[in-house]
Please model this.
Amino acid sequence: MTRMASDDHGGKVPRAIPKLPEIPEQERTPLVVILLETISLLKEMNQALKDEVARLKGLKGKPEIQPSKLEGDRDTRRQERNRRKASRKDQRRPGSQKRCKTKDLEIHDTVLIPPANIPEGSTFKGYQDYTIQDLVITVHNTRYRLERWQTPDGKHLVGKLPEELRGGHLGPTLVSYVLFQYYQNHVTQPLLLEELLELGLDISEGQVNRIITEGKERFHQEKDDILRVGLEVSGHINVDDTGARHQGKNGFCTHVGNELFAWFQSTESKSRVNFLKLLRAGEKDYVLSEIALTYMQEQRLPKAQLEALRNHLGQRFEGDGPWEAFLHSLDIVRPHHARYATEGALLGSILSHGLNPELVIISDDAGQFDVLLHGLCWIHAERLMVKLVGFNDNQRQAIKDVRSQIWQLYDELKAYREAPTEERKAELEKQFDEVFTQRTCFASLNRTLKQLHRNKRELLLVLRRPDIPLHNNLSENDIRDYVKWRKISGSTRSELGRRCRDTFVSLRKTCRKLGISFWSFLKDRLTGQERIPPLPEIIRARAQAGFT
Model:
């Protein structure tokens, strides 16, 4: 590494920076270790800034020379390829075995094809079947002629359309197709309109927009019921949030779900107050209960305000307006005091409506989700180790060893979930302390271990509740599809559009978890067949049957 120095002419010439001598281990005091790590970090930041400047100037970076594929032992590589090929052959995915692919197909049409030039005297020997799968995509217009009759007393009677056709001049299959293409396949409205016009439909941009957003009250109600029932029957939920722009402004979309359901809601905030409001599952009240006051006390609300609130123990306030007026009447106006009181009253509300107080909330350690029983994701916790960069071999080896110990503990916790015992529980608690209280040669690693040890209660909640997962992958997987949709369609423009997006992504992901075709679900609801029970009923039944 070099730096620039001035010459006699005022120019800049490179001057070498002296190399830092190796410091013996016995001379590495804690201060020296921290200074060495700081120097290493500054070097990395300096190089990153140089690379960024070079990129902005359009300069070519340092070439990355890949090792030649011609190097190495060819026989060794050939043996490795053969080993992998044999391994893949022995470990085929379920369902990949040979089977008759047309055995259970529904046959819609049969065409007889005789051979050409059958010689006279030939004997018929039956048929050799050959099944072709195809798709019929065509416009199908139906004219309904409503009969008109006049009764003897002069009144007029007119035939009525079927219930599923009274929403306009578009049939339920077309409406289902538009919703499926938009909400399942992420086809944008302009492309969807172009597709329908090319198929021969006489449809406008406004009609497509109305199909996507208007008249979906039944779907909205079913989506709201999914959360209410899901919270009632679940022992744990996974939660996460992501950005969701609306009307050109930054907002957030919160995901709540588990193996049975997925529920999304977009709002302007991702605070704890907002999260507790979502857990009310449509309720709008605030309740001052003992649990609410205990929460406020834990948040260190001033004693005078706690006593004032205790005088109204058991009182219920319907809506934001009455609650805010009540806080002002008690002179609870400081933002953080009002927030603590509001969070407690919201917690009292959701528990008064039947939410399980032993519900475990699994998150990635975002503060707004730290309510009730809070469990942390081990995958996110371990990522703190990934961010550490050692600047010598000893530190890099220390990081590697600690990460290996963490994953070993993780595997043993997975095994504990299958067969929990009190003896094993005590052993794992001791092992956790040994891993996260050890001292290494890397000060930054020690600080990270100390930070993770402070989360012992949340990380080891599985010892108390073996039914909960050790990670938050489910929520991340569910929300990834929403992120992909956001990248394709951008932000929502209207409140109705935002509500429809949340509703249909919730219904679609829940259908997938329950093994229900989203296409069949849409057609069932729009044609009024009612062959698929309401999703909340299926969730309740699956929970009672143990998720089978």
Summary: The mean pLDDT is 86.
